[in-house]
Request: fold
Amino acid sequence: MTKKRIITTAIVIVTVLVVALIGWAIYRHIYSATIHINIAPKSSTITINNGGGRIGDNYVKPGEYTVRITKQGFTSYTEKVTLRAGGTVTVEAGLSPSSDATADWYEKHHDDYDIAQGIWDRKADQAAARMLRDYPLIKVLPMIGPFESYRVDYGLSPEQSNKYIIIIRSQSEDAKQQALAAIRSAGYDISRYEVQYKSNALTDGGTSLQNTISLTNRGVSKSVLNRVKTVLGSQYPGDTLLFADDTSHDILDDGGTHVYTVSFSVNGEGSYRLVVTVRDMATVEVKVGNQTLYSGEI
Reply:
């Protein structure tokens, strides 16, 4: 090969490289945004708007895009993204089997399983981080008052499934105020949250049993109290029973029999005497005055 030909060949090669670099630079200037896609199963179909896509980096013009991941026998996944020039977003999806034919897919395809598990774990961590960022009070929940006089918890908003609300259950107005004070003392501003207040008074159907803390203060267990609730709900359907603060607790000579006695009114009228006799935490007898309403297992 002559010297002239060598020089000519070199010039051609350099020119091609320069043109290629300039072309790549122009392409990357126009398609300056990146959608990075990570999916399982890897054989799923990727659609970006009306065109195709691939696992890894997809170079696109800045703008709005709808990414859809599908595979027969699996749930589909759709995500809308907006990209600015030079920006990158990551779209991840681990599709879940939706038919008997694919139910054991991840058991048979370990690579897909590892990818999907990583995606699911990251999404769970991201969701938890967002929740704690937007609803920091959740970090210290649940808050439970003495003898369960109140309980502060959280749940999904009935109005918007992507939002959380704070739920305050209390046995009385005083207990409700104690719950609010506990939130303030923990350093949180309850006015920042959507709050739902609920009565924590035991109920059975339309029967309300208020101030049962008088019984729990004396040691009546939850299981016994639930039995008492059912019995009184049957005896006083639709009524409101308000218990006094005069609960007494006696232990008989056998050491295994506990007797609890407390006064209560029905719909704000009258004074009745409830006697609950618990034997060896196995059986219970519920009486109002001299009338036995229940005698049997707790």
Summary: The first strand starts at residue 33 and ends at 40. The radius of gyration is 34 Å.
